[in-house]
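FORM 7B: Structural annotation worksheet

SECTION A. Query
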Amino acid sequence: MMQIEGTIITRHERAGCIAASIKPDNLRSMTTSAEGDCLTTKITGTQLRSVIASVDDYLMNLAIAEDAICVVSRAKQS
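SECTION B. Predicted structure
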């Protein structure tokens, strides 16, 4: 059986906040951690379609989390 593994690393001002907001949506095959301004998510699987779907879902959750945190940060500054 084929094992597929990948790592997504992105930079964010509030990487810890973003990690905390997206971790609950992670599947068992995903791990997310933050260190400094880097957010790292590792995704594994045995079926390419499932891994691609997981990456797609993760990227959408990441975009939403980043937008939400930016909105909250702006509101606190006002």
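SECTION C. Observations
The CA atoms of residues 6 and 48 lie 11 Å apart. The chain has a mean pLDDT of 93.

SECTION D. Sign-off
Analyst initials: ____
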